[in-house]
UniProtKB/TrEMBL annotation:
GO annotation, biological process: 3,4-dihydroxybenzoate catabolic process; positive regulation of DNA-templated transcription
Domain of life of the source: Bacteria
Organism taxonomic ancestry: Bacteria, Pseudomonadati, Pseudomonadota, Alphaproteobacteria, Rhodobacterales
Keywords assigned by UniProt, alphabetized: DNA-binding, Transcription, Transcription regulation
The keyword NAD is assigned to this record: no
GO cellular component labels: cytosol
Name by which UniProt lists this protein: Transcriptional regulator, LysR family
Alphabetized InterPro entries for the sequence: HTH-type_LysR_regulators (IPR050950), LysR_HTH_N (IPR000847), LysR_subst-bd (IPR005119), TF_PcaQ (IPR012787), WH-like_DNA-bd_sf (IPR036388), WH_DNA-bd_sf (IPR036390)
GO molecular function terms noted in the UniProt entry: DNA binding; DNA-binding transcription factor activity
Organism this protein belongs to: Tropicimonas isoalkanivorans
Protein family according to the UniProt entry: Belongs to the LysR transcriptional regulatory family.
Domain HTH lysR-type positions: 6-63
Amino acid sequence: MIDRRIKVRHIQCFVEIVRQKSLKRAAERLSLTQPAISKTLKELEEILGTALLIRNRAGVALTRQGEVFLHFAEMSVAALQQGLDGVEQIGSRGSITLSIGALPSVAARLMPEVVRSFRTLAPEITLRITDGPHGYLIDLLRQGRLDLVIGRLGQTDTMQGISFTQLYNEYVEFVVRPGHPLLADPDMRRLSEWPVIFPPEASAIRPLIERVLVAHGVGEIPDRIETVSGAFGRNFTAATDAVWIISAGVVAKEIADGRLVRLPFETALTVGPVGLMSRPDAQPTPAEQMFRKAVNVAVEDLSV
């Protein structure tokens, strides 16, 4: 039986301290004083009879007991948030909103088809779509602020406590404008001669791209622009001599239309699975089940 002395505030404070890696920043996020949040953490540790965090100069670090407790504490906060959202939806004349995170690899190519199919299957459900890098969306998923994330599988350490259902495989493209000088002599080692649009550290494809560059003997790229913005990448690449390194799905339409051109570089090392990500503790709602069906229809229609 759960110890009745443990309150929601204990769990919320502990989770926020770990997320912020600082008692001070956690206190600011929760609109509390630092002594108050410190007292709440101490109460929780006394109830559990063990230390959950170790304070150091860098901030805080989890003990082994803290690591175990964090997993279930995050699930509890996420489940509570789902419950609050559900009550809010019922209060809003019964309207239902499904919050989806879409990585750049699917936002441009797959999501429009998914939404088209989903609106046919469930026109009464409002879709709320958030795009961004892998790490950002996975954090929102863990917090219960997203119901599902669709995109490329991340590195092992970023997928702890996340369920992944594979849909298809995708690879990375190196693309330029038509008539780019590199098309006449396509050598990856010449990348440093032009600006390169590169995925930031939080993106799932970053480690794979770095592996390809090392394999082809490409050194440091001095003129590098880091972004996951598809709108910026399309416009900047089309108007300049920049080389854009991006997931194939993001630029499939532009390549088909001839607005961008694929460089003939070997990128087999970047092939990886794209799929649906969810919290394993969350039971799929009818809205989520309909969305999954719409995703499968879109994948089949696009033959990806």
